[in-house]
Specification:
By secondary structure, the chain is mainly β. Helix content is about 10%, strand content about 35%. The protein is built from two helices and 14 strands.
Amino acid sequence: MKRLMLVWMMILCLLPVGGWADETADALCLFRENGLWGYMNQAGEVVIEPQFVEAEPFRGGYAVVCPITLADSQCTWRGIIDISGNWAFRPDGSVIISQDSSSRYIGGPDSGIYIIHSQDNRMYGFFDIPSGFCSGQRYQWIDENCEPDEDLVRVTLYGRKGFASRKTGEIVKWDDTDVNDGNPSPDAFVWPWFLERLFRFW
């Protein structure tokens, strides 16, 4: 019976996901054993041992998981692992969002981002899948409308909307100025430092 289940999971692993087949040599797919999720390659070899209460398919080289060691009733402790099973973003109680309101991967399956929402200070951050860069939770809001060919993420910071680089997290431009160096125009309103800290605390 166990061998039959393994064969069935190998077949599922080879099927296209969302209409696209991953033909890369390191393509991994989910399998479940004794109530825990792990990942195997297309040859049926276990690459990451079953150790997750919940797990998502890999996007590019990363996947969102909830480890058994940190699992609670709602699996709120989620992190991001790479294809070796190492932490790219360690669980800290933040909500990690993979899909937008239309159940589409944000920015595309392998070329998009994860949005990370801190439950402690209510700030947002993002994890860029192509580069593996994590911005940290520094923004008040992140727009989920991110296109695959865009190098920028729409964010809100200090009460102002702008565009952050997906590779550095820095503000490239504000949408209320035509300045491209990330600095607001002289007549633009900038939040005082104490209100900035209040936003982060709130």
